[in-house]
Structure formats: C-alpha cells, structure tokens
C-alpha cells in the first residue's frame, strides 16, 4: 500500500480510534468529567519525562534506527520515532482534559522555548561545520552506541522544548486571527493533502534551469506556497469537498 506523505494521518487515525475505544471502556468505571483539574507539571516532572522518553527512544533505536521503515498493521511506520508519537499523543489528551494549554505558565513556557531553540541552534551549528571540531561524529541514528544515546537525548530536548515553548509563544503573542489568518487556517489540512503534487511539479520544472540549488529552492517555495493555498481554496468550493477538506 502506497501511503506517501499521508502515513502520519493514518497513524493519527489509529491513535484516535484507540482513544475512542478506550473512552468507551473507562466510562463504565469512572467519570472523567469529575476529575479534579491538575496544574501544569513543573520543570522537574518535565525533565523526568524528557529523560524517560530519551531512554525509550534510545532502546527502540537499537533495533530500529532512524529511517528504517516497517509496515505495522499495513501502515508505513518509522518505529524509531514511535515513543515520541505515542507519548505526546497521550500527553496531549491529558493536557486538554486539565486545560494545560491555558494554564501553562508564561515564564515556564518561554524557558522551555529557549531550551528548545538552543538545542536546535546547536544542531545546525554542528551540521554546518561543527563536525570538524570532533575527531569522530557525535550523533548516530541508532544502534548500541553512545552517539545514538546522545542524539536521542538531544532530539527529545528539541521536541519537548519546542512543543511547550511554541504553544506558549503563540498563546501569548499571536493568539488572534484576522481575515487572512482564518483563510489560511481553513485551508491548512487540504494543503497538507495536495502540496506534494504542486511541489513535485514545480521541482520538475525548475530542475533543468541553469541556476543554483538555493535559487531553485527559493523559486519552488515562493511559487509553491501560494499555489497550494490557491488550489486548496478552489478545491474546497466543490460540492461536498468543504465537509471533507
């Protein structure tokens, strides 16, 4: 089965179905609505989750390194990232139930934003020339290797830092929508579905041009983004399309 870039939507569908089934079972034994709302976790609990997730990621990648794909329930799956996907999906459910998106302290969120951005910056510095500072590579995508352990912790720090930080950043400074923002938001899902067709077509068109790869990238980007949203806008005007897209 060829899923292409839609593999992640298939994962989300499976997670959502499992959660719906779980809710159907536990509603007979407990009332979620009556649970007391919990405060957003402190730095200590977040750090503990970061360490546990890093360890689970490292252990998973001993046998399933990054970019090793398997069919799980006939769904393309990069098992190396499953600990992140599954745990973050579960935490997202808990966050919604306890209203953490609004309770997340501003200062705490911005601290984690700084941590995440700092980890990203270090990764870019390493990739763009920092490798020459070390006698050997210090990151690896898998295996029983300290490099894989380091990258599992590094990548998890980026993931958690930005998940908390970007939510805080947009809640505090960009929590509003004008006409154009609402238009872009309404078309985001459809753009995700169709963007590959537009981008590949533009890449084929730019490929033979005698210009640098950077200019080709900029050309595809500057043309591809508005074309994707324009195409999505008119596709959603078709009968029944708006209810699906």
Description:
A hairpin with a 2-residue loop joins strand 1 (69-72) and strand 2. The protein has helices at 7-26, 43-63, 82-97, 100-103, 106-127, 146-173, 179-206, 213-235, 241-244; strands at 69-72, 75-78. It starts with 6 loop residues before the first helix and ends with a helix. 68% of the residues lie in helices and 3% in strands. The longest helix is centred in the middle third of the chain and has 28 residues, at 146-173. The mean pLDDT is 91. The chain has nine helices and two strands, in the order H-H-E-E-H-H-H-H-H-H-H. It is mainly alpha-helical. It folds into two domains: 4-173, no CATH class; 179-244. Strands 1-2 form a two-stranded antiparallel sheet.
Layout of helices and strands:
Layout: H1 7-26, H2 43-63, E1 69-72, E2 75-78, H3 82-97, H4 100-103, H5 106-127, H6 146-173, H7 179-206, H8 213-235, H9 241-244
Helix pairs in contact: 2-3, 2-6, 5-6, 7-8
Mean pLDDT: 91
Helix fraction, binned, reads 55-70%
Multimer state: single chain
What is the number of beta strands? 2
The largest sheet, given as strand count, sense and whether it forms a barrel, is: 2 strands, antiparallel
CA distance, first residue to last residue? 22 Å
The 3D shape can be described as globular
| Count, helices | 9
Give the strand line-up of the largest sheet. 1-2
Which regions are unreliable across 5 or more consecutive residues at pLDDT < 50? none
In the residues, how many domains can be counted? 2
The secondary-structure element order is HHEEHHHHHHH
Which percent band covers the strand fraction? Answer: under 5%
Structural class of the helices, strands and pairings?
mainly alpha
- Rg measurement, Å: 21 Å
């Amino acid at each position: 089965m060829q899923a292409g870039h839609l593999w992640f939507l298939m994962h989300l569908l499976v997670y959502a179905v499992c959660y719906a089934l779980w809710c159907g079972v536990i509603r007979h034994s407990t009332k979620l609505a009556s649970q007391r709302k919990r405060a957003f976790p402190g730095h200590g609990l977040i750090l503990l989750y970061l360490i546990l997730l890093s360890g689970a990621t490292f252990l998973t990648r001993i046998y399933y390194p990054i970019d090793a794909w398997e069919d799980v329930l006939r769904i393309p799956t990069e098992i190396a990232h499953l600990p992140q996907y599954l745990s973050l999906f579960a935490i997202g459910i808990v966050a919604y139930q306890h209203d953490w998106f609004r309770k997340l302290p501003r200062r705490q969120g911005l601290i984690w934003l700084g941590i995440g951005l700092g980890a990203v910056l270090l990764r870019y510095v390493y990739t763009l020339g920092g490798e020459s500072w070390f006698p050997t590579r210090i990151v690896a995508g898998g295996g029983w290797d300290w490099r894989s352990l380091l990258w599992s912790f590094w990548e998890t720090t980026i993931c958690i830092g930005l998940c908390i930080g970007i939510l805080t950043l947009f809640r505090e400074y960009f929590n509003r929508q004008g006409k154009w923002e609402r238009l872009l938001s309404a078309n985001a899902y459809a753009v995700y579905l169709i963007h590959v067709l537009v981008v590949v077509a533009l890449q084929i068109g730019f490929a033979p041009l005698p210009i640098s790869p950077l200019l080709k990238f900029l050309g595809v980007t500057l043309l591809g983004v508005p074309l994707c949203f324009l195409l999505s806008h008119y596709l959603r005007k078709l009968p029944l399309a708006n209810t699906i897209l």
